[in-house]
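Support request from a user on the community tier.

User writes: "When I paste my structure tokens into the form, the page sometimes reloads and wipes my input. The last time it worked, I copied everything first. Here is what I submitted, just in case something in the input itself triggers the reload:"
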């Protein structure tokens, strides 16, 4: 019988079963011993893959551990102090011994166009060189003069000491004192030598350390360590932005050519910067990069630059300035972007008005704190972003402003349908709410009706003006993602399908209708605004997103989504909705395109929109309704009245027995016949209908309608000889 003895305690210990593949050895039966002849169990080791994975896991843990990071920072910080201090002292020494300083100052003065100062430095440099030359010439004769001085000095000192000794001897009447001063001096020299020999060893040992400490201190005082290597409390978060901080932040960006160029600059990089100007709740500075560094490299290192400046990433906005090789940096005051921006002027000013043509909606404030005004005149619009970031609220805010212009008509499809747009009941002519396929079909019909309205306007005689029609589709991704289509059974029993209503393919009726409005709606005041979530090529087709005049985006997940939302140009030039903070930057939109004032050369702007919550929106809607002649909002695209109305028959009915009738009279008769449909008809509406039917009014003194032409048009239509209706690509 064998026991297992613990080598530490020298006592028997429980036997462990290593055959288990667990990490933790398990006791078998405490107190039970294994007989001598029992073979020793072979420990099973984890296989190679598991071990590698574990090793990688441990390594990653160690590398990313906060203590490792702190240690790395410590080493980098103190190393940088010493290296920086050595560099600085070397530079000072070189400056002191050469004319480099004068040359440098001369070039700075020259670069600044200050020729007076340049001349002054040139003169100083000349004097310095002359003095140095003189010193060198003096050095040639120095050994002889030094030897002479040594002989003379020694003789003088010895004579002096001897004279002193004689005086002492006379005064004390002791001849032995004649040599006393010389002996004291010799003793003093001996002691000095003794002290030096004792101190020399330790001094020799300590000297490098003292030098090291000196270098470290010079580097520390000069702040030679990069920001990221400083401890949290010293990182200077929120410090005011000064030229030296900006240059240092650029130098430590990790772009070698930029760092080297800055180091070799005579003015330490100050010439790269424009004056730092206050811009809203931050400052703005243009950075002209030295050749060899590209704006793209700096744009790609936004986070590091922000950290070097003591800011969070979202507090630094970089864009490409109009001047070549120049990056424009806007740096927020620390924490300023988290301050609320205040309520919307719509909420604050009950007398606010809107003008579709000349007005601009007060949407929010830009980063500089200036009011961001946006013109919606004849502009298609897209707003996108991740879910729950303020898309509906910001789109609705624009609609609420525009609704103050009583001439603007709204058709709204809300494919979420939880009531976000319900306050537009009584303002919008159509309000479809809901997420189902039926709602997608309805919204598609609504947009197609928009196309018809657009075509009617396009066909109307030139010179006509039309009331603005704004079609809004919120959560448009539901339509682009829908597979809804009608099916019907043919006489022989085969089931056939119509073209899909939704989807992003060319056969999608919704997509085709949106595309048509994008293509031609602008000129006749038919525009469409789409709000959509989390864009992809599937739920927001390229052709559709590019048809918008205003493209705006709340926070997005990736740069590729940002490119979809705003276009490559804007993102290449610094637009970065993917850098906004999800959940924290709600209502912050990056806007590209026209309609909003942009600085020259800037393709995008970041706007912090005013939040108009649902209650405020309802209140505003009530105010708007009070200004407008109320409309009966339909909750479906199907317009029963207009569907059943036969305009040509009505016109003929109004004309009665007359062969001709003035257009004004016809309109008046129509309005009396069916006010719901014709009360708002303009002369252009009448002309458009008659022209489209081939019975256009003509001039006979005044504009008149011919009953015969109308009758013929009806005959043509009824006999099916009129042009086939547009197929919408189905
Ligand atoms: N401008 C804003 N400022 C601050 N918070 C806002 C702003 N806009 C919206 N929010 C907040 O975001 C929330 C979501 O807003 P909203 O419903 O408009 O988002 P959404 O992107 O349309 O959401 P969904 O995912 O439903 O489409 C609001 O309830 C509000 O708390």
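"...and here is what came back when it finally went through:"
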């Amino acid at each position: 019988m064998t026991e297992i003895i613990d080598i530490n305690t020298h006592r028997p210990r429980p036997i462990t079963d290593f055959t288990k593949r667990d990490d933790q050895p398990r006791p078998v039966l405490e107190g039970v011993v294994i007989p001598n002849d029992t073979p020793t169990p072979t420990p099973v080791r984890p296989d190679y893959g598991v071990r590698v994975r574990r090793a990688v896991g441990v390594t990653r843990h160690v590398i990313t551990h906060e203590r490792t990071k702190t240690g790395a920072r410590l080493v980098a910080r103190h190393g940088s102090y010493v290296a920086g201090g050595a560099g600085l002292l070397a530079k000072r020494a070189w400056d002191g011994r050469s004319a480099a300083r004068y040359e440098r100052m001369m070039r700075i003065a020259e670069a600044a166009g200050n020729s007076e100062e340049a001349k002054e430095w040139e003169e100083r440099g000349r004097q310095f060189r002359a003095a140095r030359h003189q010193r060198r010439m003096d050095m040639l004769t120095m050994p002889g003069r030094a030897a002479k001085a040594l002989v003379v000095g020694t003789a003088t000192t010895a004579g002096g000491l001897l004279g002193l000794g004689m005086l002492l001897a006379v005064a004390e009447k002791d001849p032995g004192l004649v040599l006393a001063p010389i002996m004291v001096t010799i003793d003093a020299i001996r002691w000095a030598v003794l002290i030096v020999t004792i101190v020399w060893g330790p001094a020799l040992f300590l000297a490098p350390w003292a030098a090291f400490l000196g270098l470290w201190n010079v580097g520390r005082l000069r702040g030679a360590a990069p920001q990221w290597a400083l401890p949290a409390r010293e990182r200077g978060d929120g410090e005011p932005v000064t030229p030296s901080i900006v240059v240092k932040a650029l130098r430590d960006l990790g772009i070698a050519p930029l760092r080297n160029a800055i180091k070799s600059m005579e003015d330490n990089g100050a010439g790269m910067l424009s004056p730092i100007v206050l811009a809203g709740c931050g400052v703005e500075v243009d950075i002209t990069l030295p050749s060899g560094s590209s704006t793209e490299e700096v744009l790609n290192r936004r986070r590091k630059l922000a950290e070097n400046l003591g800011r969070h990433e979202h507090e630094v906005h970089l864009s490409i300035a109009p001047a070549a090789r120049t990056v424009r940096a806007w740096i927020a005051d620390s924490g300023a972007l988290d301050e609320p921006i205040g309520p919307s002027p719509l909420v604050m000013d009950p007398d606010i008005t809107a003008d579709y043509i000349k007005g601009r909606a007060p949407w929010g404030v830009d980063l500089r704190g200036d009011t961001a005004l946006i013109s919606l005149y004849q502009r298609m619009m897209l707003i996108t972003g991740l879910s729950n970031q303020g898309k509906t609220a910001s789109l609705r805010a624009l609609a609420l402003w525009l609704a103050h212009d009583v001439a603007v008509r709204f058709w709204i499809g809300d494919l979420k349908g939880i009531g976000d747009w319900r306050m537009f009941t009584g303002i919008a002519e159509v309000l479809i709410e809901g997420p189902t396929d039926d709602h997608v079909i309805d919204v598609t019909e609504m947009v197609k009706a928009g196309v018809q309205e657009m075509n009617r306007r396009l066909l109307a005689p030139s010179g006509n003006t039309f009331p603005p029609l704004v079609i809004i589709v919120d959560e448009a991704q539901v339509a682009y993602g829908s597979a809804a289509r009608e099916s019907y059974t043919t006489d022989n029993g085969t089931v056939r399908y119509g073209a899909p209503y939704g989807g992003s393919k060319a056969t999608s009726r919704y997509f085709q209708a949106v595309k048509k409005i994008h293509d031609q709606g602008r000129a006749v005041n038919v525009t469409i605004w789409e709000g959509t979530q989390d864009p992809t090529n599937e739920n927001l087709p390229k052709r559709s997103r590019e048809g918008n005049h205003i493209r705006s985006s709340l926070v997005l997940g990736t740069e590729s989504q940002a490119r979809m939302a705003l276009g490559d140009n804007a993102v290449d030039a610094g637009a970065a909705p993917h850098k906004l903070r999800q959940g924290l930057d709600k209502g912050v939109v990056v806007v590209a395109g026209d309609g909003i004032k942009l600085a020259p050369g800037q393709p995008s702007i970041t706007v912090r929109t005013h939040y108009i919550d649902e209650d405020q929106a309802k209140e505003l809607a009530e105010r708007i309704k009070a200004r407008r002649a109320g409309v009966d909002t339909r909750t479906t695209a199907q317009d029963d009245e207009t569907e059943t109305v036969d305009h040509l028959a009505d016109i003929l009915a109004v004309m009665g027995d007359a062969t001709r009738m003035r257009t004004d009279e016809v309109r008046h008769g129509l309005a009396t016949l069916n006010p719901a449909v014709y009360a708002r008809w303009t002369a252009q509406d009448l002309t458009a209908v008659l022209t489209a039917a081939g019975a256009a009014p003509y001039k006979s003194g005044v504009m008149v309608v011919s009953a015969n032409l109308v009758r013929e048009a009806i005959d043509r239509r009824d006999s099916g000889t009129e042009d086939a209706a547009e197929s919408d690509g189905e």
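Agent notes: The reload is a front-end session timeout and is unrelated to the input. The chain has five domains: 1-45, 72-222, 243-338, 364-627, 640-718. The radius of gyration is 44 Å. Escalated to web team.
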